[in-house]
Amino acid sequence: MHLRWVLDAIDITVVAVFLYYILYWLRGTQAVNLLRGLILLAVIYISAKFLGLYTINWMFEKFAAVILVILIIVFQPELRRTLVQLGRGGFLSRLGLTPPASSWFIRALVRAVSQLTEDKIGAILVLTRTAGLGEYIESGTRIDAALTSELLVSIFEPRSLLHDGAVIIEGDRILAAGCLLPLSESKLLDKRLGTRHRAAVGLSELTDALVIVVSESTGTISLAENGYLTRFVTREMLEEKLFSFYREQYSRLEVKLPWLKKKK
Question: Which residue stretches of the chain are H helix?
Fold first, then answer.
């Protein structure tokens, strides 16, 4: 009896963890809206069963196989992406089971921004926190590559096909480039600011991402966070902010996975 209780506890825990990471995986994708629809259908089906609505029950039972096929077709992009990430070993990182970027990555990022500033090359870089950015990632070109200063600079070169959009970064990897971001409609922004700055503020109003902007006209650095824009950021200020940003990410990860403290 005691062994049965332990096995049941393990069974429930595994299922709970599995469901948690399935929801984490769906976060920020178009599949979230579909999931809401499925929950609504489930509520209708259960209600029909309870109230004895035979016609609705008959329809659900007859079309269950068709609905399953439709789900597979609709979820196909997310399923394929997950399998690819699993094959590359990137799935654990996607689920938050690996620590955030180390200091070498932060310095590489600062080096890239400094180079863009010096050459007056316009750029917009999005650093993810907890909010899903799947919608914006899908609007660009998927890269899923380790971030280096050389790669970042080359993406924003004026001759590059991706230089007009934003680069989205998660941890120490570039997820996508050439991404389209929502423009802020705030009346408080300086009217002289261009599209990049408005896009950076627009995204920070809707998500908890940190957005770095390099002005094409002046080469100055700005930071957008929580709907606010900080302009004329120096290299030292940027480096300090990034170390603080990733320290916060690591602290959040330690709360979720305490055993990471031993690796610190």
Answer: 2-26, 31-51, 54-62, 64-74, 76-88, 91-94, 103-118, 134-138, 149-156, 195-206, 235-256
Q: Which whole number is the average pLDDT over 209-220?
A: 94
Q: Pick the closest to residue 18 from 95, 120, 110 (CA basis).
A: 95
Mean predicted lDDT score pLDDT of the chain: 80
Same domain, 76 and 150: no
Exposure class string for 238-252: b at 16+ Cβ within 10 A, else e: bbebbeebbeebbee
Asked whether residue 36 falls in the same domain as residue 137, the answer is: no
The DSSP output letter for 92 is: H
The Cα-based distances of 194 to 25, 122, 214, 217, 254 in angstroms read 34, 10, 11, 10, 39
What is the distance between the alpha carbons of residues 219 and 215, in angstroms, rounded to a whole number?
5
For residue 188 the two structure tokens come to 């408080």
Pairing of β 166-170 and β 173-179 = antiparallel
